[in-house]
Amino acid sequence: MDHTRLVGIYLAAGRSSRMGCSKLNLPLGNRFVGSMAFQAALDSKLEAVIAVTRKEDSLHWLAPFSEVLGWRLIDCDQADRGLSASLKAGVSAASQLGASGVVVLLADQPNVTYWMINRLIEEFLGAPDYSYIAYTHNGVSKPPILITKRIFSLIEDLEGDQGAREIIRGRESETGKQILLESNECFFDVDTMEDYQFVKKMWQNIR
Regarding beta strands 101-106 and 6-12, do their DSSP bridges make them parallel or antiparallel, or are they unpaired? Predict the structure, then answer.
């Protein structure tokens, strides 16, 4: 049996246009917005993590991981074409590593935890015939999403800001699994300053 190799794709090449500043560099607790889910990915059972960034961006949020093993950085030259370009770059890099599948993560989702990632991995390892495994809340698929190499080719058809959800949308007849998660806070993404203030208070309450 071939070795199953699952790689994380951490999409961090957005422009933060709605925020008006680099949202991933905003402080959150003793870390940064962008470093929260990245740490979760490194703490998970993923064999490697690929951070997809924009060449001209300040990567202050990645500085704490400079001496950490298990991840690599790639610049997306076509980041201006939207999320799909970053996803394609990440999947291409993961394929070069021999990935059996990828877990797609968004850098602006600071509440994603390692156990959420591990749940996707465990579900796949228990039934490797799945083509994808995704969380769902109120009937909507949410990242992180695990996509296996059998449907990597579908990523080439994505355009603009289409992401992993577009691949699995309408594919209920194929082999896949949706995991219901009642809490929407796990999927909270930081797009605006109001979002940032909300998640900042959330983390202050936790501590």
Answer: parallel
